[in-house]
Amino acid sequence: MKYQNIFVDLDDTIWDFRTNSKIALEIIYDRYGLSEYYPLFDEYYRVYSEKNTELWSLYHHNRISKETLIVERFRYPLQRVGAYNDKLVLQLNADYLSVLSEQGELVPQARELLDYLKSRSYRLHIISNGFKEVQFKKMKSAGIENYFEKIILSDEVGVNKPHPDIFRYALNKTGSSKNTSLMIGDNYDADILGAMRSGLDQVYFNPLQKQIPDEFPTYEVQTLSEICDIL
């Protein structure tokens, strides 16, 4: 068996962030009466999501702080309609994270993949840029916390993927060798290039079949079940 330790990204690789986030945002939209500013939830969701994606890209590369991210993603949609205030933005973020952590939808075939990997005696670990106050709760809500031996979060390490320090930290914490470790993730920059430049093989989970912009990953799959054919 070539690989012994499997490092897995959480959001949108195993835990269905897109689905769970949309559910949480719609609850927040209704709870705070945001239809006053955005009569259609889908319009609010579009504006929020575009800004959130932009901010997460900056956060992955340590160009903005966590505090900036959580404020700006809720500030921007409100500012566009002249409804911004500091207190409301902080309330929206706190309630959103609370509701989000209660959601448990998994990416299709995720649980089957985890069962397969555990049955093959791989050691499984999480490496995530997500916030520590919600990542453990999200895993518990989905019933997947017991699949993983170690949970490595960028909040605790002090740097985000793709920075090599978080991969070095993960290898050290798990007692792993990069030559027998594999990274599975859906984010090309954070997960794939980060692992590649740290000397780990990678599986790029690419369900939307995005064009690969730079160096090719060790493996590429469109569904999680395809990973069973690799391992």
TrEMBL record:
GO MF, one annotated term: 5'-nucleotidase activity
InterPro entries found in the cross-reference section: HAD-like_sf, HAD-SF_hydro_IA, HAD-SF_hydro_IA_YjjG/PynA, HAD_sf, PGP-like_dom2, Pyrimidine_5'-ntase_YjjG
Pfam short name (any one): Hydrolase
Hydrolase found in the keyword field: yes
Superkingdom as given in the UniProt entry: Bacteria
Signal sequence interval, chain numbering: none
Keywords, comma-separated and alphabetical: Hydrolase
Listed NCBIfam families: HAD-SF-IA-v1 (TIGR01549), YjjG_YfnB (TIGR02254)
Name assigned to this protein: Putative hydrolase of the HAD superfamily
Organism: Coprobacter fastidiosus NSB1 = JCM 33896
